[in-house]
Design goal:
It is elongated and about 75 Å long. The C terminus is likely disordered. A hairpin with a 2-residue loop joins strand 2 and strand 3. It is about 65% helix and about 5% strand. It is mainly alpha-helical. Strands 1-3-2 form a 3-stranded antiparallel sheet. Helix 2 runs antiparallel to helix 3 and helix 10 packs across helix 13.
Length: about 270
Amino acid sequence: MALAKVKGLLGDLQKLVGRGNSADLAKAGDLIDDIKVEIISFDSLPPLLYSTPNAAEERALAASALEYGALVAVMIEDMELFERNMNQLLPIYTSCPSIPLSPLKRKVQGLNLMFLLVENRLSDFHCVVEGYTPEDLADSQVDFPVKLERELMVGSYDKFHSANAALPDPLYEFFMKSLLSTVRDNVADAMEVSYTTLKASDAQRMLMFDGADEFKEFIGETREDWLYQGSEICFSAMEVGGKTDIPSMRLIGQTLGYATELERIV
């Protein structure tokens, strides 16, 4: 019987994920694939949603397996795999609201919001947040990305940088690294249209680099048109018309805020 087999596989999966080493995570990925094959026979799952005798248990087991699938994807830093698991899990969440709250649900909800921030899918982010219950939003794992998005909206990059020290779970670090890269690209784009030249030390601070070597590496890999002139960075090679030197971070925050707000409206 598929239900009994899924129970056994899920128990093995929990043990492998709990150990967390690379070999066990590889085995966990195989187990998740095996579980997905078995739950195809569960007519209680979307899109059929039949009220079978074991519907409640089938839905809970399927959701739990996919939650572990999402965690494994983050642990092996596979963003595409994370998205695939979430695309399979979210219909269960929305179509089967009576499923008992699992220990992993809020963590997975928060990680999904982090993923949407990294992908700059802000419309999807806000749609997902609107669907969360007050209890969901009160959980620190869900509240963290919600607050983070607000800080990004108003250009509070100092708070964003310090948020690394207050992660609700170590798994959030994977998305924070990717999000930091996205934020840096956005800030760098705004710097190019806001300044003609800028002190290298100020540019390094705005881009949230702790060391000059990392900052220079970023320029070499992503901003080859930026030119060093003594202690300053010159953006004139971009030939952006009408830009002037404005010695303030406020314009960058406003520029990104307006862009984000426009995307939200669209």
